[in-house]
Specification:
The structure is a homotrimer. Chain A contains nine helices and eight strands. Chain A is an alpha/beta fold and about 300 residues long. Chain A folds into two domains: about 140 residues, 3-Layer(aba) Sandwich (Rossmann fold), CATH 3.40.50.1370; about 140 residues, Aspartate/ornithine carbamoyltransferase (Rossmann fold, 3-Layer(aba) Sandwich), CATH 3.40.50.1370. In chain A, the strands form two sheets. A four-stranded parallel beta sheet of chain A has the order 2-1-3-4, sandwiched between helices. In chain A, α2 crosses α9 and α4 crosses α9. The longest helix of chain A has 24 residues. The interface between A and B is medium-sized, with 32 and 36 residues. Chains A, B, C: Heterododecamer (2C3:3R2) of six catalytic PyrB chains organized as two trimers (C3), and six regulatory PyrI chains organized as three dimers (R2). Chains A, B, C: It catalyses: carbamoyl phosphate + L-aspartate = N-carbamoyl-L-aspartate + phosphate + H(+). Chains A, B, C: Pfam families: OTCace, OTCace_N.
Chain lengths: ~300, ~300, ~300
């Protein structure tokens, strides 16, 4: 049943997908994130609140937003989907309107339904930050990937990025392909043929070539919980055939790096000993995640409250 | 098993039921809530803590208290009933005494057992605020209803309020009847005959008349999770027979308003398009909920800590 | 599968077991806890974060740490094991490294696996405080027990402590025996013979003698959830045979006290009316728990950040 809603009263800027950000805006966001990385924290003294609505399990994203919010001095309204009125059948829209009425100034949502935000974006008067919609979009993950690459190479133009794993089922991966190419990077995809996308076939490169070409090996997580991987043999076989093995990394270029969004299946998509090796930027990505989320919160609050919102 | 407890050492004022508040006290509380609405926040610099014990799902009430507590500058001790020692069989009394010992200055409790507070009130040395006891009392919900009516009409005397829905199983409804009449309002009840109370029969009015008489249509939520509604036909039939339909609202008086405690079953007790219509004060009620909870917290902390507690 | 990890870069002091604390260090910690008890709070203005990882139900310990952390002005990163990526199979090590990357300055962990910390201690660069490892260690519980005894008697030398209950399955009990004897106390154990330890047999004393000898009756909780107590008869029989009955306490010495780590099975290991009687220090223990946790946090942050960390 579609619900009747009131259109929002003013132009509110949400952060929902990377497609909605142009190149200039992306660079501005990354500049702000790097400023936060340098000085780290800048707390508002205003009584402003962020509401975090997480309908799916998430360690990294939820805690990263909580750290970013506290770094900015925002109060947090903790919404626990497991004990909420959603159990009483309340719609997502009514839940968000409730948070708005209670005093949330910004809301972060992670929800298993792809594009859950389409039914919200024109009706909610506070900024929505998408913390992940099912297999769909995850803009703050993309931003932290971009920040990490930019930190390493100082540019995107000409940087060769191999995204390896389940491309077909990962819209985040496809979204990264799109934005990296817009920024000037050369993007390849790798992994089992069954997991490749028709539209991506021109970008395909086998793993053994990939490691020699790549400046960045961006490994994807095998998402056991989202789809069966019965097509593929056991974890060891997968690792040998398509994973980042120690042997393969020995053929990587001197300055090449390894990225992974985590949580990691050690020994499957990436060899155990590489996770914290010298090429790995995996934990650096997590640290950057806090800074890009601070920058995203800062961005939407500037729009909503005025440039001097703090 | 009854437990032996130590009587509390001083007079502590709890907020448990509306029956315990006289007319003067109610007006004072509403005045304070309106002051908070105007200036919104006034934070203590003292290290004071509120512990929130929610044994039942609740979005609105829990988040509303958390917002109110943070608005006042209180620290929060988050008690998650699902992962607590209550699982090890600890009594509610021992749990609350524990929170008191750990440093809570006030405790908010929502519990499925009606009058759970009777075994606590004479023994706990910090103020207890009842956040709802089963089908029993919910004083902060009553206060926010009163605040919303007073904002609209500037008075209670002579205001005609129709409470519509499951009167029999809602002590909150019956509690609202009692307090509204004490404050001078004229109260009617409406809904299916099976859901009416013997004692309420003199106040009964059919829905089609109700909409023409009411200044306030106070709709109750059909609580699917609390009792079966097999007596009643399907949701559409219920809506036609007893719900607030678009057609019925067209016969409402010019300045009449619609209220609902939420969460809402859109299309059952109230038509979807009315929820955010011009007559609706439903989301306003939620905003007022934060202010009355600030006023209630302020009230009990004044009693416990002295008038200048902040 | 063992994971490859990077050794930590600096000497980080964790708080994992009492065995690692010498007598001088213990006294220093207790002195600091008593200072916190006197002035109660001293908040940092730095943006520092404590991450709390609780994989097991716990009211007291979790809330006590949260109160201690807020008293010191630390921000809190709430890690909810039930909704975390641990569900996606992430290792404890990777989870803690994630929290470190996100900005946690100290991490408190409670985990059902005994000595879970052995796989972390040499690799994690922020202090780990053990909030309990299965039936293993629980150093902050030991510290609060020691603080409570010291407050009462001003010393440990010669104080006669009877620990009564399931000694065999409680490493915390055995750990308390060890540390109390190191501090000069005379320790006895009591309870059902089936629950005694070979190594403890020289310390055994029957309950009826125990109450006459003890300065401190330290009752253990019957942990229904950890092991079956089928060996033992019903709760009433247990109470009569091995519990602290009202009759038995009448034979206790004038200044003797009763302790219990809680949650309490009223009427089983201790008579209901004794829980809040004049000899009981049970709720005092909980209050002290906040102070020792403040002292432990202060201790590790001094090591990690320098003596003037605030």
């Amino acid at each position: 049943m579609m619900s009747m809603k009131t259109s929002k009263t003013a132009v509110v800027q949400h952060v929902l997908t990377m497609e909605e950000w142009n190149v200039r805006q992306i660079h501005e966001l990354l500049t702000r994130a790097n400023e936060f990385a340098d000085m780290k924290r800048e707390r508002t003294t205003l009584p402003l609140y962020a509401a975090n609505l997480f309908f799916e399990p998430s360690t990294r994203t939820k805690l990263s937003f909580e750290a970013a919010e506290q770094n900015l001095g925002l109060g947090i309204l903790h919404f626990d989907a497991a004990t909420s009125s959603v159990k009483k059948g309340e719609s997502l829209y009514d839940t968000v309107r409730t948070l708005e009425s209670i005093g949330a100034d910004v809301v972060v949502i992670r929800h298993e339904q792809e594009r859950y935000f389409d039914e919200l974006r024109d009706f909610i008067n506070i900024p929505i930050i998408n913390g992940g919609d099912g297999c769909g979009h995850h803009p703050t993950q993309s931003f932290l990937d971009l920040m990490t690459i930019q930190q390493e190479f100082g540019r995107f133009a000409g940087v060769k990025v191999v995204i390896a794993g389940d491309i077909r089922h990962s819209r985040v991966a496809r979204s990264n392909v799109e934005v990296l190419e817009r920024l000037g990077a050369k993007v390849y995809v790798s992994g089992p043929k069954e997991w490749m996308d028709e539209a991506m076939s021109s970008r395909f490169i086998p793993m053994d070539e990939a490691v020699e070409v790549a400046d960045v090996m961006m490994m994807l997580r095998i998402q056991h919980e989202r789809h069966t991987v019965q097509l593929i043999a056991g974890p060891n076989d997968y690792h040998e055939a398509y994973g980042l093995t120690v042997e393969r990394t020995q053929r990587m270029k001197d300055k090449s790096i390894i990225m992974h969004p985590a949580p990691i299946n050690r020994g499957v998509e990436i060899a155990d000993e590489l996770v914290e090796g010298s090429r790995s930027r995996i934990f650096k990505q997590m640290t950057n995640g806090v800074y890009v989320r601070m920058a995203v919160l800062d961005h939407v609050l500037r729009q909503a409250k005025g440039g001097d919102w703090k």
